[in-house]
Each structure stands twice: as C-alpha cells, then as structure tokens.
Amino acid sequence: TEHFTISQSMSNQKVLITAGPTYESIDPVRFIGNHSTGKMGFALAENCLKRGAEVVLVTGPTQCKLSHSRLTRIDVQSANEMYTAVHEHFSGCNGGIFSAAVSDYRPNQIAEQKIKKSQDKMVVEMVKNPDILKSIGAVKKQNQWLVGFALETNDALKYGAEKLKKKNLDLIVVNTLQDKGAGFGFDTNKITLLDFNNKTTKFELTTKKEAAKNILDYLLTIKK
Ligand code: CTP
Ligand code: CA
Fold first, then answer.
1. Which domain of life is it from (predicted)?
2. Structural domain includes residue 3
C-alpha cells in the first residue's frame, strides 16, 4: 500500500466518478456507442481508493474490473441512465470527477422490434442527451468540488477553458486525440490541467494510472 501525506489523503472524502462510454439503443439488438474503454475512470477510482476515499463509480459498459470495500459500482448503459444515477448520488458526495464519454445524442425512437434491412438507405434521427456534468455544475454546493474532462482534436485549451466556465468546474483535464498514443483504447494519456484560476499545467505522455495520480495530486493542492 502507498502512503500519502495528510494533504494528499482523501480519507474524509466521498467521490463520485463517471467512466466509460454510453450505449444508446436503436432497436433491441443495436446501439450507437463510442470507443471509450473506461480505463481512465477506473484508474481515477483506484487512485481515490488508495488515498482512503469512499468511491461511487457510475460506469457505462466496460471490461474494466475493480472491487474494494469502499467502492460502490453502478453499471448503466445510456446517458439518461447515467444522469439518473449521478443525480441520485452526487448530493451525498464531497466532489465528482466526470471522465465518461457520454454520447451527445441518442436515437429519437427505439424501435420495439429489430429493424429489418428492407431499405437501401436508413436514417436515424438523433436528439440531444442531457449534459450530466453541466447539470451537476449548476446544482453543486459551495463546498463540493467538480472535475471534468475535455476531449478535443483542435484548439484544445480554448475549448477546455470554455467548458471549465460553462460547467462551473474547479478543474478540467484536457486531452487531445492529436497526441499519438493518447486517449481511447490506449493505456496512456497526455493531459493538460486547467484550473479555475486559469493556470495551465502540461504533463508528458504517461500511463492512465500515472495520469490519475497527477490529476488527484493537483486537485488536492488547489481544493479548499
Ligand atoms: N459530459 C457529460 N454529459 C454529456 C456530455 C459530456 O457529463 N452529455 C461531460 C464529460 O464526461 C466530460 C465533459 O462533460 O467530463 C466534457 O465532455 P466533452 O464531450 O469533451 O464536451 P461536450 O460538453 O460534450 O462538448 P463537445 O462534445 O461538443 O465538444
Ligand atoms: Ca461531447
């Protein structure tokens, strides 16, 4: 087991973490999803547990495994299910880290029966999902802290700063798919942290476990 200094301990903290992709059903056998593996969220949960925190992990479909006496794992499929679980648990937590790759849209209708390949073209109408992180940013209490992620392909810091503000975050983890070996499916990440004071901290390419440690080390130095 690792030892942390008092300021780096989370033994008095209960943390909500979102992880993984969401699956948005089209019909009983099909869905629209994304390439998120859940690794980053699970690494964050593991690091919080190491520091003594109690963790509620709300995760979309993933192969990742984690079990611990202080861990409550809630498995969900869709963004709407994730929204409900998050709103049920956040008020009882000291803070949250939102690393899930939530689908921005879902099919407007879920066909009751399997859709047959009767036509040459098929159009799926999509409607917007709720922004779970933004909705929590709008209701978080003074003493609750909030960390978000921003996945960008271009103008990462500009978009990251906008999301930090719009979602009422204390810290945002910016990662760009431009960096080779970073992001979906990889075991590594290249992150930049942007805090509410507009301070930017860049990290080299690291494993997701190391990235999780860096994120929490940083959070615990800025958090009141
Ligand atoms: N997020 C969320 N609920 C959504 C969409 C995003 O909770 N419906 C969270 C993600 O978990 C992440 C942050 O919001 O912590 C930013 O997600 P991202 O996809 O980068 O940004 P969006 O706000 O969805 O904007 P866009 O995809 O247009 O860049
Ligand atoms: Ca998005």
1. Bacteria
2. no
- Interface confidence, given as ipTM, is 0.99
Beta bridge partners of 188: 207
Q: Which atom of ligand 1 is nearest to the CA of 135?
A: 7
Q: Which ligand is nearest to the CA of 167?
A: 1
Range of the domain at 161: 12-111+123-222
CA angle, residues 65, 221, 96, in degrees to nearest 5: 40
Tell me whether residue 4 is in a domain: no
Could you tell me if 64 and 113 are in contact, meaning their C-beta atoms sit under 8 angstroms apart?
Answer: no
pTM here is: 0.96
Q: Is residue 116 part of a domain?
A: no
Nearest partner of 164 among 136, 135, 196, judged by Cα:
196
Other Cβ atoms within 10 Å of 139 Cβ, number: 11
The answer to whether residue 1 is domain-embedded is no
- Residue ranges of the annotated binding site are 104, 114, 130-133, 149, 163, 167
Look at the block and give the residue holding tokens 């700063």. Answer: 161
For the Cβ of 149 lying below 6 angstroms from any atom of ligand 1, the answer is: yes
- Ligand 2 centroid to Cα of residue 50, in Å, is 30
Tens of pLDDT, residue by residue over 150-177, are 999 899 999 999 999 999 999 999 987 6
Using an 8 Å Cβ cutoff, are 32 and 70 in contact?
no
Query: How many domains, the chain?
Result: 1
> So what's the pLDDT on residue 187?
80
Query: Structure tokens of 191?
Result: 């992150």
Domain of 16: which CATH number? 3.40.50.10300
